[in-house]
């Protein structure tokens, strides 16, 4: 069993973020010690790391909530649950990821354009600086 501070260290999420995820329902409330302190199992830490990875992908909290509605489907399938039971969930996750991937591709194109523009300006300014040195001699 791990404390919220230990989970925070392992996942890179702050204790505040972990508690917030519980509050909005993205994360189930963990077990508690007699004094009320949260304690987490390794499986819960893995799930929190999954949430963090989705966050790093840039998914919104609404998308993460929708994405994780059925919990860790891959674990359930690996434990022998019927795949067809999760087909709608998997299709929904595919839609979320495809939409997000399209948004990332659009951002990449914009970044590539901005890099190209900056390189052109840099080359122009470097060339102008060389010409100025020649003219001042």
From TrEMBL:
Keyword terms of this UniProt record: Coiled coil, DNA-binding
Organism: Paenibacillus segetis
Bilayer-crossing regions: none
Chain's gene name: yyaN
Keyword flag rRNA-binding: no
Span of domain HTH merR-type: 1-70
Designated name of the protein: HTH-type transcriptional regulator YyaN
Alphabetical list of InterPro entries matching this protein: DNA-bd_dom_put_sf (IPR009061), MerR-type_HTH_dom (IPR000551), MerR_fam (IPR047057)
Coiled coil: 87-121
Family annotation (PANTHER family): REDOX-CYCLING DRUG-SENSING TRANSCRIPTIONAL ACTIVATOR SOXR, TRANSCRIPTIONAL REGULATOR, MERR FAMILY
């Amino acid at each position: 069993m791990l404390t919220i501070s230990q989970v925070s260290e392992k996942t890179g999420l702050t204790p505040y973020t972990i508690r917030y995820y519980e509050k909005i329902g993205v994360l189930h409330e963990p077990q508690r010690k007699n004094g009320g302190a949260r304690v987490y199992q390794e499986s819960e830490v893995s799930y929190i790391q999954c949430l963090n990875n989705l966050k790093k992908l840039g998914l919104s909290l609404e998308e993460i909530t929708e994405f994780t509605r059925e919990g860790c489907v891959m674990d359930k399938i690996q434990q022998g649950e019927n795949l067809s039971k999760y087909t709608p969930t998997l299709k929904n996750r595919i839609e979320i990821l495809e939409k997000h991937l399209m948004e990332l591709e659009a951002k990449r194109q914009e970044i590539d354009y901005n890099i190209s523009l900056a390189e052109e300006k840099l080359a122009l300014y470097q060339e102008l600086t060389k010409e100025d040195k020649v003219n001042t001699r």
